[in-house]
């Protein structure tokens, strides 16, 4: 089925994000309002990192976002102290309006119902935690039972060290729920942004029906230095870039942010949801 009406690059007006004075790629002076209208993509193609609020505004039709399980909050179960108390980190993030690294909920994208899972790198580096895993698992299960397409927006440093093995266990739990989504035949699309590392791409972020990366995104399991120490191999230049991942078949396409929402609408049509 063809999309008859052109799809806007954004479902609503994007909120402000933290910006440098000049573009780090081309050096041009930035005009925040102009950049906001371009989904925070510079004319040179540099993609500025966006937080969860901005991604939700970009993907969701205006007024359709309904968040789920925001009341499920993290706690310092292990009494982690270094480099600073984990509870202090949680409390500081709450004062800044953040309660976890993943937000989940329902929305419409160009009139099509979807479930969204959106990482927020501002909260402990977008790390996968007990609460993040629980929210994602519940969202996958709800999407499977309602047969509603799921879109993941990934920006993550991996599993959260302050929660130890409890955080690592979330990969298995989330992938179990994701398996039920796949068995139900429900479409799942993953968008990997800069950066997406560790257990997130090692699990749910690279298991979609279509894996999409943003231009310039860094994607991998761990840093180049750690990999070289473990394998004693010289790694090819740019091996963790989106373009390299595309050539290696790790992702299916690299798509500019200004084309992402129309593409997702098209994919929803093609997959019949």
Description of the structure:
With 273 residues, the chain is of the alpha/beta class. Helix content is 34%, strand content 16%. The protein contains 9 helices and 8 strands. Strands 1, 2, 3, 4, 5, 6, 7 and 8 form an 8-stranded mixed β-sheet that branches. Strand 4, helix 5 and strand 5 form a beta-alpha-beta unit. Helix 4 runs parallel beside helix 5. The longest helix has 20 residues. The protein is globular, with a radius of gyration of 18 Å. The termini are close together. The model has no long low-confidence stretch (mean pLDDT 95).
Alpha-carbon distance between the termini?
11 Å
Shape field = globular
Counted by DSSP, the helix tally is 9
Which range best describes the helical content: under 10%, 10-25%, 25-40%, 40-55%, 55-70% or over 70%?
25-40%
Estimated radius of gyration: 18 Å
Mean pLDDT: 95
Sequence of secondary-structure elements: HHEHEEHEHEHEEHHEH
Strand content: 15-25%
Unreliable spans: none
